[in-house]
Amino acid sequence: MAINKGDAMMVVGRITMATISLVLVAIMMAATKMSFVEHRTEPGKRHLSTPDVTKYSAHSVVVLSLLSVNTTNIVTTVDERFLSIGATMGFIRTHLGQHFNSTRYWTLARGLSPAIYRLGGAEADFTVFKENADPVNCTLKPTFQSKGPSENYGKLGFFNLTFCAHTWDNINEFARSVGWDILFTFNGLERNATSWDPTDAIHLLNYTKQRGYNVIWSLGNEPNGYLRKDNVSVNGTQMAEAFHTLRKSVSRVSGLSDIFLVGPDVSAPTKKIPAPPTPISKYLIDFLQAIGNTTNVTSFHFYYTDGRTAGFRDLTNPLLSDLLQVNIQSVQSLVHKYGSKANSKIWLTESGLCFGSMPTILNNAYADGMLYLDRLGMAARLGIDLIVSQGLMGKYGGIFGENIYPHLFYWLLLCHKRLMGTRVLDVSKVVSTKVESRQQENASKILDDDVSKYIRVYAHCTKTSALYQPGSITLLIINMIPYDDVQIKLEGALLNSTIHEYLLLPVGTKGILSPRLQLNGHLLKMEEDLTLPSLSPRKQPPGSLIMLPHRSYGFYVLPDAEAQACQ
User: Fold this and answer.
1) Most buried residue, 42, 51, 207, 362, by CB count within 10 Å?
2) pTM of the predicted protein model
């Protein structure tokens, strides 16, 4: 898209907000495009050979004519616990007591506070609270109890789990100490012939009140899938009735006047683009029409794709992120049309890149960070109040490994938590789709897609700290172009601001498949159990270029922005 001088002057003349006018020059390096081989070894599974991330194509130029940030007004404000963490009840069973005894675990958890710690997952609908149960019995391997075709949920088998008082005490004491709030999912399959039975929930509510714990509650995990999970059909209207029963049950707990209730935790309404109508949308409509003011938040889950079949191209394709946008806007539309003011806020109470598992070669890889961070930026920009990243600990997708050392995702969350505040700013950009080679023989158009889709920019007011005062702006910039390095020149009111760069790059010969992360050239790792490493910026003088290598990401703080919206 070409912009002549006269048109550009008219656009600039109409902009009344503080503007960052940027010229992006994307430079393609070396001679050979990244190549990799995809082959299937068995149906439904895909294995990838390692991409050669050291090879690049010829130099090229991409021009970004305008990038503006409205520094006068905010788009929305997210919850201070916007970045939150989720774990399954199965995690509690398999890791019972192990992480609570680790000093390192407590240190890492404090780094992400304030946050919500959601306990849910499919196992939540098979969990029963027993206050007086023998603690030893809580650690025994339970007996398989599922009546339904559980193979539809992969290798996950469903068990009746006994949830003991001492486990609940440990979880709440831990959360209170590290600054996390518990979001607990009641068993939605505790049903008699016609309706949900609140007996077990009342026991846990009563015990929680007696112990003085402050807990947020939900009921049922993806109830739209109960038929597959346990051969029980519960429609949206019936699920709303269960929530009404739970709300009324509060009166049966001495000293408890009210609870904060989140639901219905349905699956993502849209699985692919283009988006045909799905039964989940109908389920959510029925729920919202029947729920009234009983819930305080409307919630749903989202994953981009099935990790058992996803490949390298899937998880590095910026167009896949459009699926999140479609789902958020779909749920927002339904809540606006059928919900109430009481439950107008929307939480993503379970989310991640892949459900099922992660492709082995991409597990905890630097390349995952592009979509992982874009998910956070897009959710906040579109008005999601809080997002729970599923996977606390584990080999695949967890933010901690089994040895309680942080995975790559943990460092991304820590950087976001420390640098991005709760006030979200509007970013608009106009990108030329023309990519010209500096070598005449390669002067053809390189990218057929709109280049703007490959350059993601999100802006928040900076989180206030000892280093950053009100008025600062933080940019999250993700360069998803496969072969182009991006240079950004700040102009206008922000030209006079110093730039604090937090550039995150992979470590080692694996390139973007590396699980290790460096910040401004320094490896991010735990040096000792009691202390998190400092996140130190690389300071650039006013007028400096912001430069991101191809397929990379970073945070950029403008401490001298003096943004009115951030004061």
Assistant:
1) 362
2) 0.85
